[in-house]
Specification:
single chain, alpha+beta, Deoxyribonuclease I, Chain A, 6-stranded mixed beta sheet
Length: 270
């Protein structure tokens, strides 16, 4: 898979590195390096020292931000980071990381997301829906700026397939309390706001499951593009090549955008 960047291309990666990744840091670094990503959103970046090592070895700037619980979020960037902010208070849980980056003469925004787990349980789906709705209110302040919303949403879009057999008996007992029905409305606000699901836009018939690497169970990691970025989407894939299976319990998702081909005035100067 050739995903190397050129001067016309902008490549982003979203990656849940599983519990900080400190024991797998070299594998994680190798996975990130082979994508040639300009910007990397890291979920479960729980150890700042691991982030520092990755940033140093990859030659990237870094942001580390505290989540609302035990799971934290980070950003690696080859582009200048102009400013950033973390949102980690209800109704936003676990974290929303907003970063403004400079590309040429223009700025873009990355909204890095990590939502609560247990995609099949109603109470968590309600919490995720509230968070997504709140995230859209944050984005509204700078909606005219080209932006991406990406990360581990711990949610499954309506119509997507998921395998629940991997979950332990205690989860299945809770599922029975909701008549074994699974809910898929947390991401509906993004869909209604006309964000493009980058992977599904290019792969309407592939599963694209990102979790788990050893037992494909669900597509939980997404890159959503606003209209100005969606028009430039050229590539989006799960990174499954070695050593991704051993580096985390999630496969990362990479997307590439052609910023040279700019019919939309909002991105014409990039």
């Amino acid at each position: 898979m050739d995903v190397l960047t050129t001067h016309n291309l902008f490549t982003v990666l979203t990656y849940n590195i599983c519990d900080g990744g400190s024991e797998r840091v070299e594998l994680i670094r190798e996975v990130i390096a082979m994508t040639g990503a300009d910007v990397v959103l890291l979920n479960e970046a729980d150890h700042p020292a691991t982030l520092d090592q990755l940033a140093r070895e990859l030659g990237m700037q870094s942001i580390w931000a505290h989540g609302s619980g035990t799971k934290h979020i980070a950003l690696l960037s080859r582009l200048p980071i102009l400013n950033w902010r973390i949102y980690n208070r209800r109704p936003i849980t676990q974290a929303l990381l907003e970063a403004e980056l400079q590309i040429g003469k223009q700025t873009v925004r990355i909204y890095g997301v990590h939502l609560l787990p247990y995609f099949m349980l109603l109470q968590y789906e309600l919490a995720r829906w509230r968070t997504v709705s709140a995230i859209l209110q944050v984005i509204k302040r700078n909606r005219s700026t080209p932006h991406l919303v990406m990360g581990d949403f711990n949610a499954v879009l309506r119509g997507e397939r998921a395998d629940l057999s991997i979950f332990p008996p205690r989860i299945h007992r809770r599922l029975r309390l909701q008549f074994n029905h699974t809910f898929h409305f947390a991401l509906t606000p993004l869909v209604r706001a006309r964000y493009t699901d980058a992977f599904r836009a290019l792969h309407p018939n592939e599963s694209g499951m990102t979790w788990m690497t050893t037992h494909a169970s669900a597509r939980l990691d997404y890159i959503f593009a606003d209209p100005s970025f969606a028009a430039r989407l050229r590539f989006c894939e799960c990174v499954t090549a070695a050593p991704a299976v051993r580096a985390s319990d999630h496969f990362p998702l990479v997307a590439r955008f052609d910023l040279q081909d700019a019919p939309n005035d909002a991105m014409r100067e990039i």
